[in-house]
Design a protein that fits this description.
This protein has 288 residues and is α/β, with parallel strands linked by helices. The chain has two domains: 35-128 and 249-282, Periplasmic binding protein-like II (D-Maltodextrin-Binding Protein, domain 2); 130-244, D-Maltodextrin-Binding Protein, domain 2, CATH 3.40.190. Helix content is 33%, strand content 24%. The protein is built from eight helices and twelve strands. The strands form three sheets. Strands 1, 2, 3, 6, 7, 10, 11 and 12 form an eight-stranded mixed β-sheet that branches. It has a two-stranded antiparallel ribbon with strand order 4-5. The longest helix is centred in the middle third of the chain and has 28 residues, at 165-192. The radius of gyration is 19 Å and the shape is globular.
């Protein structure tokens, strides 16, 4: 049976929600999957580059275990470019909810962290990733590599480079695989004829577009295919050889104006600890 967009069985959130007196998550209507924890009077606020969402449950639980003085933590896992705009502007609205919390720690790819160094009093690298291609289980279109994403019959789900750091890195990989012409076909010609769909939040949209048969192939981080397989969603991974791949470095920045300065320092130390590294490795990231 072919799934369709009205069938919400694959909808997020894919993490385990915190316990509350009223559990009210409605798939397709109210699920807010990229906001975690306690938005009221938090003792620590972390803005994570979105594709780390699968690590959040374990990360925050382990951090609270090692630093039991912190009970209320709020985290966001949105595209790093969106989070950067939120930091610069001071607020973000999702639906009818307005968030004005300032982050204590911001994480993103190395290039964006280096672009924003004036915001930070300290930075640290803590995890690494590479690219892969997500396809439906059985790989019905027989996608073998990035070059195939230029085929007319392949519907591509592609992160928008305007605010998704991964988008620019995928474009680099397209050039490695098939030169500027492949990049132009996928990012211009296929965008124009709607066979390339540019996402706003790829770590949610790309898996869902594959799962609901709206796209045939999605270049994503390795960890994202790894996680979808971990939770038994019907997807497969097409690996990209190292010579045609790229490596992403995840860095954290301690905000100069962190409202919770000591908690921020403690979380920075935690991110580079063996405990945190083991969590990232569990979800398909590398840490050296």
């Amino acid at each position: 049976m072919t799934a369709n967009a009205q069938d919400h069985r694959f909808d997020p959130p894919w993490n385990n929600p915190p316990e509350s007196s009223v559990m009210f998550t409605v798939p397709g209507v109210d699920n807010v999957p990229d906001f975690f924890g306690d938005i009221n009077d938090p003792q620590l606020v972390v803005f994570f580059a979105g594709n780390q969402f699968m690590c959040i449950d374990d990360l925050l639980a382990s951090f609270k275990n090692e630093y039991p003085q912190y009970h209320r933590i709020f985290a966001e896992t949105l595209p790093p470019g969106i989070l950067a705009k939120q930091i610069a502007g001071g607020s973000l609205t999702v639906g009818n909810m307005r968030v004005t919390l300032k982050p204590d720690v911001y994480t993103a790819g190395k290039s964006r962290i280096l672009q924003m160094t004036d915001y930070f009093s300290d930075t640290a690298a803590y995890a690494y990733n590479k690219l892969a291609i997500m396809v439906s289980k059985g790989n019905p279109k027989k996608v073998k590599g990035l070059k195939d994403l230029g085929r007319k019959d392949i519907r591509v789900s592609m992160p928008n480079p305007a605010w998704e750091g991964i988008g620019k890195r995928i474009e680099e990989a397209y050039v490695k695989a098939g030169g500027e012409n492949l990049k132009k076909i996928i990012m211009e010609k296929k965008v124009a004829d709607s066979t390339t769909y540019l996402t706003q939040i790829h770590h949610r949209q790309s898996p869902m577009r594959i799962l609901y048969n709206q796209s045939d192939a999605a270049p994503v981080w390795f960890s994202e295919v790894y996680y979808q397989q971990m939770i038994n969603h019907p997807v497969e991974m097409v690996r990209i050889p190292d010579k045609g791949n790229i490596t992403a470095t995840y860095m954290a920045g301690l905000m100069k104006n962190a409202p919770h300065a000591q908690a921020a320092k403690d979380f920075m130390n935690f991110l580079v600890s063996p405990t945190a590294k083991a969590i990232y490795q569990k979800y398909g990231f590398t840490t050296n």
